[in-house]
């Protein structure tokens, strides 16, 4: 099903769409998973919808920040196991289909990391397996205190190897291995402590808190944020000396940008900067 683009917060939503889109405030795009019956699983259809929405937002100069939220009791329960089970009936026992599924999922997660706009996960409910991977792949995450996170593949004989990639880049080795090997639910309060999410708040305040964070970020130069986001993920994979050289080059190039010149001038002149996103 096609996702529904909504221009204002007051516009009616097409709640039969599996992905809802709503632009609110100062260029904040809310993408809401809405496949409640399937617990917002990363089905073949949902991954297509999400990738298309992210591609569209990438080239939309009016979008400054993206919030990824969900309707229903589950933020995202991972891959659609009914689709996975159906794949076993193929002549090749699912080999081609499974390869396609995990290639598409890896592409989606990398789109989030490589996206020029900051992406915030707003989590209410459970986020398990690829759903936990989705949260870990976002730049920031805010969750309701009642939310839980897990990589429970071991319970069904399937190690969460692809969620492991995002998880291990957010939490320490010991914490990641416990989640992957035990498969237990991790409550939001502990998820904050291990670095999987930024904060846990009362459920009724969740949207307000994520919107406040998104609004604060949206007030910055989008050019600066794009440079910084890319640099953060690039340097993280480098040896220390290489990372410093790379970051120094980024800093020099950043200083030559119009918004950096404007920001420094505004600070010296004690006034509010006027961003041009260049």
Give a quick rundown of the structure:
The chain is α/β, with parallel strands linked by helices and 278 residues long. It has helices spanning 44-58, 81-87, 95-114, 130-137, 161-167, 173-182, 188-193, 206-218, 222-236, 240-255, 258-268; strands at residues 4-6, 19-24, 28-33, 65-70, 74-76, 119-123, 126-128, 140-144, 148-150, 186-187, 199-201.
Give a structural overview.
With 278 residues, this protein is of the alpha/beta class. Helices cover 46% and strands 16% of the residues. The protein is built from eleven helices and eleven strands. It has helices spanning 44-58, 81-87, 95-114, 130-137, 161-167, 173-182, 188-193, 206-218, 222-236, 240-255, 258-268; strands at 4-6, 19-24, 28-33, 65-70, 74-76, 119-123, 126-128, 140-144, 148-150, 186-187, 199-201. The protein has a seven-stranded mixed sheet with strand order 1-2-3-4-6-8-11, sandwiched between helices. A four-stranded mixed sheet has the order 5-7-9-10. Helix 1 runs parallel beside helix 3 and helix 4 (130-137) packs parallel to helix 5 (161-167). The chain is globular.
């Amino acid at each position: 099903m096609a996702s529904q683009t909504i221009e204002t917060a007051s516009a009616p939503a097409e709640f039969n769409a599996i992905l809802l889109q709503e632009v609110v405030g100062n260029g904040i795009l809310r993408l809401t998973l809405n496949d409640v019956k399937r617990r917002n699983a990363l089905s073949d259809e949902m991954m297509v919808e999400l990738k298309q929405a992210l591609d569209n937002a990438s080239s939309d100069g009016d979008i400054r920040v993206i919030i990824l939220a969900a309707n229903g009791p589950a933020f995202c329960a991972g891959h659609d196991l009914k689709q996975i089970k159906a794949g076993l009936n193929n002549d090749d026992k699912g080999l081609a289909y499974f390869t396609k599924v995990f290639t598409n999922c890896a592409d989606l997660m990398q789109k989030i990391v490589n996206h020029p706009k900051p992406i915030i996960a707003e989590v209410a409910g459970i986020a398990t397996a690829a759903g936990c991977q989705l949260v870990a792949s976002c730049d920031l995450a805010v969750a309701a205190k009642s939310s839980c996170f897990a990589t429970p593949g071991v319970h069904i004989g399937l190690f969460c190897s692809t969620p492991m990639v995002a998880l291990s880049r957010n939490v320490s080795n010991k914490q990641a291995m416990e989640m992957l090997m035990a498969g237990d639910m991790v409550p939001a309060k502990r998820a904050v402590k291990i670095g999987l999410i930024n904060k846990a708040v009362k459920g009724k305040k969740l949207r307000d808190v994520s919107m406040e964070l998104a609004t604060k970020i949206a007030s910055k130069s989008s050019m600066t944020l794009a440079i910084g986001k890319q640099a953060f993920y690039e340097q993280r994979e480098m040896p220390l000396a290489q990372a410093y050289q790379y970051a120094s080059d980024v800093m020099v190039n950043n200083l030559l940008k119009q918004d950096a010149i404007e920001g420094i001038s505004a600070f010296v002149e004690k006034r509010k900067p006027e961003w041009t996103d260049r």
